[in-house]
């Protein structure tokens, strides 16, 4: 049996008086693929993402530990946590730790999301 997911893939943060846990498990990544209509590698390699896609990715990372959260509520949590810019480090940290085998040849982590910016 394998060692399981890297515990560093579980990121906790505070927002709206509650502790939240973000983790991109296999099931979370499948939910993300289904919601955005793209394979995870194509999604992560995109140069930019719509705000809707970023909110959907955040939602997918939440549902492992907070299955009751809707995508609209995920947007509210982003706002309560300080906005998208504040939350992107948490998203990228969780995604990178969830996909360590995605190390790029240049030494960067392939699990990070594009350039971390929404499309204009």
What does this structure look like?
The protein has 120 residues and is mostly helical. The protein has a domain at 22-102. Helix content is 45%, strand content 8%. It has helices at residues 26-36, 40-45, 51-62, 71-80, 84-98, and strands at 11-15, 18-22. A hairpin with a 2-residue loop joins strand 1 (11-15) and strand 2 (18-22). Helix 3 (51-62) packs across helix 4 (71-80). The longest helix is centred in the last third of the chain and has 15 residues, at 84-98. The protein starts with 10 loop residues before the first strand and ends in a 22-residue tail after the last helix. Mean pLDDT is 85; it is low at 102-110.
Keywords:
mainly alpha, 120 residues, two-stranded antiparallel ribbon, globular
What does the main sheet amount to? 2 strands, antiparallel
Task: Name the overall outline.
Answer: globular
| Helix-residue proportion | 40-55%
Stretches with pLDDT under 50, minimum 5 residues: 102-110
What is the typical, i.e. mean, pLDDT? 85
Distance between the termini: 45 Å
Assembly category: single chain
CA-atom Rg in angstroms: 13 Å
Provide a count of the helices. 5
Percent of residues in beta strands?
5-15%
Count of distinct strands:
2
Helix- and strand-based class?
mainly alpha
User: What strand line-up does the widest sheet have?
Assistant: 1-2
Order of helices and strands: EEHHHHH
